[in-house]
# Entry
Amino acid sequence: MKRIALLLFFAAAPVLPAQNPADTGRAGRMRQHREEFQRQREARLREALRLTDDQAAKLKATQQRFGDQRRAIMERQHQLGGALRGQLQPGVAANADSLRKLLDAQEQNEAALAQLRRDQNREMAGYLSPLQRARLSLMRQHFARMGRGRGAGPGEGGPWRDGPWWGRHRPRFRSG
# Structure
């Protein structure tokens, strides 16, 4: 569940269309959960970063646009990882040329992801204060640690003294 929340946070899932009456069963529930998660995430970001309405709208648009690109890169990375695993099957000789090409493609994908992150940060610098950007960076790091299964709880230091930022407690940032 934590990995799903992490993925949704960083992917910044686009606003989904309203549920149709024909949307029942698992697909409908999943859509409702995604929409609710998106609304809650936006509210938490607004509160934690102390965003104005204009900043919140710009951040949402930025995250949607870059999230679409990020998802495409991550999907490609997933495909490359599967192809690498396929080449490294026990008892099967790996094709060195294929491995080289796959590793080169992974490296290019990682570079594209890093560039996308720089571009997104540059865009956000146009409407978020340095303090807001720092808070957002810490929130992202927190979610990344959660996804790796460490550093998510209280007592880990940093601004997360009272537990995760999305619960009852807000992060305690020093503004000075």
About this structure: Confidence is low (pLDDT under 50) at residues 4-8, 11-19, 151-169. The radius of gyration is 19 Å.
